[in-house]
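Deliverable D2.4 — example input (structure tokens):
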């Protein structure tokens, strides 16, 4: 099996665009992805439902051997996910994937709701509990920092309130020796590059700077897929989308 060694989103996209395209190869070991988080991850079956997960799953090539399951919930915090039984349900999915021979990666993204009721350190303690349980179930956790809110300052920069929770996520990943991707930083950089008007075209509604419409789902789902591809030891194949990859790399609006 080939090994992916690229570690930055922009460099990864450059390589994808420049290299000749071999046929999509079959995964030697089936891969499973289980997505845990709040509404900015979650998608239901309704368009404009808020998160990036459907866009991520749609980016995965070789659907015969790559499986993707959304276990995120609207309004969820790390604490409520653990206490409500939602996390136990996700663990059951992980165990099923593993028992079926799938190498199972588990994305975990929280912060939007935790910041309303808990300190970063409290969220970090819950993330540690989740990491331990995911590993015990046979899964491989990938901590994901929060998707940015698309609220802007007058100077065109993002009016960010999530950074302490993003920092805590990366700290826990470092302490626990688990994979992580900094969606928070990359989504801020992209939104600031394309500006408020283009960024707000990704909103679920005109005044909702947190949740995504179908276009936002596609854009940020692809961003997550590229970031995950960059950190995986398995060389993950993605559905070709040169135009969107180019826009993400160069900070251009995907929907004009």
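Example output (designed residues):
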């Amino acid at each position: 099996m080939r090994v992916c060694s690229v570690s930055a989103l922009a460099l990864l996209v450059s390589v994808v665009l420049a290299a000749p395209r071999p046929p999509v190869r079959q995964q030697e070991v089936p891969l499973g992805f289980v997505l845990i988080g709040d509404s900015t991850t979650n998608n239901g079956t309704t368009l404009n439902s808020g998160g990036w997960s459907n866009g991520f799953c749609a980016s995965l090539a070789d659907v015969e051997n790559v499986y993707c399951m959304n276990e995120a919930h609207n309004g969820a915090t790390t604490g409520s996910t653990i206490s409500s039984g939602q996390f136990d349900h996700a663990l059951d999915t992980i165990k099923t994937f593993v028992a079926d021979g799938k190498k199972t990666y588990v994305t975990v993204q929280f912060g939007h709701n935790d910041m309303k009721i808990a300190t970063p350190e409290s969220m970090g303690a819950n993330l540690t509990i989740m990491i331990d349980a995911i590993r015990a179930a046979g899964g491989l956790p990938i901590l994901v920092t929060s998707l940015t809110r698309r609220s802007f300052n007058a100077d065109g920069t993002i009016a960010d309130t999530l950074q302490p929770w993003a920092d805590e996520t990366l700290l826990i990943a470092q302490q626990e020796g688990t994979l992580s991707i900094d969606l928070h930083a990359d989504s801020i950089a992209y939104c600031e590059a394309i500006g408020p008007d283009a960024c707000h075209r990704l909103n679920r509604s005109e005044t909702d700077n947190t949740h995504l419409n179908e276009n936002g789902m596609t854009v940020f789902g692809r961003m997550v897929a590229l970031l995950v591809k960059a950190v995986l030891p398995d060389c993950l194949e993605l559905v070709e989308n040169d135009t969107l990859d180019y826009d993400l790399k160069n900070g251009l609006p995907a929907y004009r």
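The longest strand covers residues 31-37.
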